[in-house]
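Recall from the previous chapter that SMILES is a line notation for molecules. Here it describes pyridoxal-5'-phosphate.
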Amino acid sequence: MRYLSTRGHADRKQFCEILLEGLAPDGGLYLPESYPQLDDLALTRLREIWQSQGYAALAFEILSLYIDDIPAADLRALCLKTYTSEVFGTKEIVPLKPLQTAGQKQPDLYLEALSNGPTLAFKDMAMQLLGNLFEYELARRGEELNILGATSGDTGSAAEYAMRGKKGVRVFMTSPHGRMSPFQQAQMFSLLDENIHNIALDGVFDDCQDIVKAVSNDLAFKRHYKIGTVNSINWARLLAQVVYYFAGYFQASQANSQKVSFTVPSGNFGNVCAGHVARMMGLPIDRLVVATNENDVLDEFFRTGIYRVRTTANTLETSSPSMDISKASNFERFVFDLLERDAVKTKAIFGEDLSRTGFFDLSTDARFPKAAGFYGFESGRSTHADRLKTIQQVFAQYGVMIDTHTADGVKVALAYRNPAVPMVVLETALPIKFASTIVEALGRQPDRPAQFEGIELLPKRVQVMKADVDLIKAFISQHCD
Ligand SMILES: *Cc1c(COP(=O)(O)O)cnc(C)c1O
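With both inputs in hand, we obtain:
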């Protein structure tokens, strides 16, 4: 399998080459040259593997369709090492929980539990694999990598828990000082591993991001200190996420003739893009429903064909903060497919129109209706009031407590429910991460998994710093040997 850029660059690369890279040289995103196709027989075989050998074996089967530069035995070992019940809490790794009304034959919805990893958000599903892939590939090359990132919460902690103790990798993670939830701060700052460095910057999330960009734009510094990232445009993260659409499908269906729909709480369009890839491979997905919060860039596109990025000032701080985005960094991948892989047009709209005018308009493009038709996308948005109501309703009706992001998914999923097709909502975090909104909705504290008892009291390792590029650079060079 070779990978190409959505903006038409001539290079074709192998998986391990793009594993440690960010954007393609022309600013595009990497995608496989084609999506491997699974027919009924192949799906039946995967269903049997899932049923008899479980998630790690299924992950190996799917990854090996896209990765031909890691020996099969090594890739299998990496999957087995990553997806264990010790790390993900259950033997199934991603169990399906029916939400069923008493007296009804069918569940109203299913929740697919993706948030039982070390940081209680679905990002662990991909990041844990990425940690093992990085360690493997860096050892093979005899290289080191210093990951520099900015986080408002979930991504940073998932990256740190994936990279802690890994040979050849250091993490420098900036976050806005005092702005993450107390639980999130405790999760990150209580890591005492030598290769993990928390940097709390005076400022907001955008200041952190600006600093990371400024450091990365110093190409000499970047090369010398082998600076890399783990952001959501990384193809390996997306690929790892494809696997749980298969596992969800096999749990919600008995035979390959049945279709299943998924609703996905969305921010950067990484998670739902993995569903698109699964569907392109032949997984019988009916609808892919994109759920946004008040920051509804994506809902607007699927309703109107107009993609209009927000300014920082127009991006709201909501109670589902991991979906507070001004633009969706993975969206270019889907649009490239929607435009029948027209790289010239993709380059024109993402590389030129968007930076010049802040929007593009596909409403009159003959291919736009395929988004809902051929590609099966629907969308909806949810607000703080919807979120509170949905958390209350799901708790009262089904006795299940959901987090704020998952609530956005459930709210939108209920609008698209079709009794003939099972609807799976991806559970993207556990309520304990966003306790204050749960208290607002239910008047009580969310349950806390036993391993997180008292983490706010643990010793913390964090460097508080002014948001200054030279200070960050000095800190990095001090901590690299
Ligand atoms: C990151 C995140 C999302 C958004 O996922 P995308 O892949 O960016 O669409 C949703 N919910 C939670 C809890 C997250 O951490």
